[in-house]
Design brief:
Layout lengths: L2 H8 L2 H14 L10 H9 L7 H19 L13
Helix pairs in contact: 3-4
């Protein structure tokens, strides 16, 4: 199983919600209403090798898609795409 598949297998809406709350709490007070998706990917990938170059880019995009899908299952959270 690849690193990204391992991460995806362990990703649940509840785990993601906890991660969002933890990262938000670590941010300055005025910035706690949102968490950048890149920070979530970095936190989820901690301890995993996502590869290099195109392989890393594909892994990143898969994780972003999974985060967006998981957030949709959390009624108290919204996923907002950059530039939206």
């Amino acid at each position: 199983m690849s690193a990204v598949e391992t991460i995806l297998a362990q990703l649940t809406p509840e785990r993601l919600g906890g991660l969002v709350r933890r990262i938000a709490a670590e941010q300055p007070l005025g910035e706690r209403r949102s968490v950048a998706v890149g920070r979530l990917v970095v936190a989820l990938a901690e301890g995993h090798d996502l590869g290099r170059g195109p392989e890393r880019s594909r892994a990143y995009m898969r994780l972003v898609a999974a985060i967006e899908s998981s957030v949709a299952q959390l009624p108290e959270m919204r996923y907002i795409k950059a530039g939206a």
